[in-house]
Amino acid sequence: MMYKRILLKLSGESLAGKSSSGISNKKLIEYATEIESVVKKGVEVAVVVGGGNIFRGGDGMAIERVQGDHMGMLATVINGLALQSALENNSIKTRLMTAVKIDEIAEPFIRRRAIRHLEKGRVVIFGAGTGNPYFTTDTAAVLRAIEVKANVIIKGTRVDGVFSSDPEENKNAKKFSKISFDEVYSKKLSIMDMTAFTLCQENNLPIDIFNVNKKGNLLKLVQGEDIGTRVHL
């Protein structure tokens, strides 16, 4: 295995499948199976799921920004509970830990406890973002990856990696198999928000971007196959 401990970042929208919102049972089962394949190889797995399939704030809504961000945090907990259930249906021991206390539903995030869960082979899902408004779930994912000493943050997307332009709009877009943090800046490529990206660079945390919807891709990636794009120093 190329990695001992990973943090997988999934968008909320990916859980919706072909719908624009909600949770697709088909996608839940697919992602749980992908994670299971990696866990069974002895890789320690942490997961952060976004909440955009349930709530996404925006201009023009009659919801104040902080309130909207709190709603988004709760949406990630709902997604975390769904993924936890799907994993446990596959007999994968899973813990949901949240940045805000919801004692009846999940464990509070305690760094040492999270690491201990990972060491015991449990999948750890981190919910409620950082617990603070104005921070994205990408930033939360990077923060948790650094805190639990993950070897890499793996970002699942619907395309095959990082391209010179949007491959869904430009069929001639060039895919990068490897690219440095500095090149991403200079080419003005969009991988994650600037706070999250800078945290990765400053802490020498590589980013792997891959197509999460292709069966077997996650296992191939952690085994060191040339899947997706690697962002490095």
Short description:
The protein has 233 residues and is an alpha/beta fold.
Task: Walk me through what this model shows.
By secondary structure, this protein is an alpha/beta fold. The chain has one domain (5-232): Carbamate kinase. It has helices spanning 12-16, 25-39, 65-89, 111-119, 137-147, 181-187, 194-202, 217-222, and strands at residues 5-10, 44-49, 94-98, 107-108, 123-127, 152-157, 162-163, 175-176, 178-180, 207-211, 229-232. The strands form 2 sheets. A 9-stranded mixed beta sheet has the order 4-3-5-2-1-6-10-11-9, sandwiched between helices. A two-stranded antiparallel ribbon has the order 7-8. Helix 2 crosses helix 3 and helix 5 (137-147) runs parallel beside helix 7 (194-202). The two termini are 21 Å apart. The model has no long low-confidence stretch (mean pLDDT 96).
Shape: globular
Task: Assign the CATH architecture.
Answer: 3-Layer(aba) Sandwich
CA-CA gap between termini:
21 Å
Largest sheet, in brief, is:
9 strands, mixed
What number of domains? 1
Please, how many helices? 8
Order of helices and strands: EHHEHEEHEHEEEEHHEHE
Low-confidence stretches: none
Radius of gyration, whole Å: 17 Å
The fourth-level CATH homologous superfamily is Acetylglutamate kinase-like
Beta-strand content: 15-25%
Estimate percent helicity. Answer: 25-40%
How many E strands?
11
- What's the CATH first level? Alpha Beta
- Order of strands, main sheet, comes to 4-3-5-2-1-6-10-11-9
